[in-house]
Amino acid sequence: MCRNRHIDGVVGPFSRSGTRSGRRWMFRAPDGGQYTLERNRMEAGVGMHTRTVDSSRAEERFRFGDRVRHLGRPEWGIGNVTRAEVFREAGIECQRVTIRFPNGGLKVLVTSHAPLERIPADGGAPPSDSEGPTLGHWAGIAEGDWLAPVARKKIDEAMITLPQKVRDPFLTLAQRIAATLELYRFGRTGGSLIDWAVAQTGLDDPLTRFNRHELERYFDRWALELDAHLGRLVHEARERQEPIDALLRSAPPGAQRALRRPGARR
Asked: Where are the domains of the chain?
């Protein structure tokens, strides 16, 4: 059994079912979901399984019927709370919430570990940095509308924007690099492209708004932004002589390829 009871806020215990090249562990949760984590990232305390949320978010109370998003797994889509119970963990009052996600299935999450965001009744867009019209709002504007040019520009911007967490100046460079490396779990083929589109748009079925060719084009532009952002963070960390070698050794293959490209800032 894994001693850590929470991975992405999912309630454990988790059973280890195997290894891969001595580097990766596969865990199976009671809800039937599987989670793969790199062993050295676990030992270093880096990774989403160690995530805790700020006290204000942990104190937020969820109720039956609430629509929520898991900020660490936006590709699960917007889920519906089917059960919520209050309990105490390490002397702190929090909730155990059962949520059915359209692309993630049924999850039992603990609010002190899972970064959950309540979605308003008319919501459906990805987390934004500021208040204002959502991607769903802009996507609903007809092509002949006088706002159509503005809508196209807003949609383009939203589809290639990296999450706030990788740009948050209040996080350390190591934390921003770790968050950036997590984004390399997405790819431009198969279901991984759809997972990325769900995370990026907040739509449960992005193919109702975009065709696959459009999603591939947007993903390619987003991936370029991601590679460039990673290069800048690593370059800044090197200049400050911050210890990031262990983090980079466990980086996904896509991130390592990006850092090896000619002209990459590293």
From this structure: 1-121, 148-260
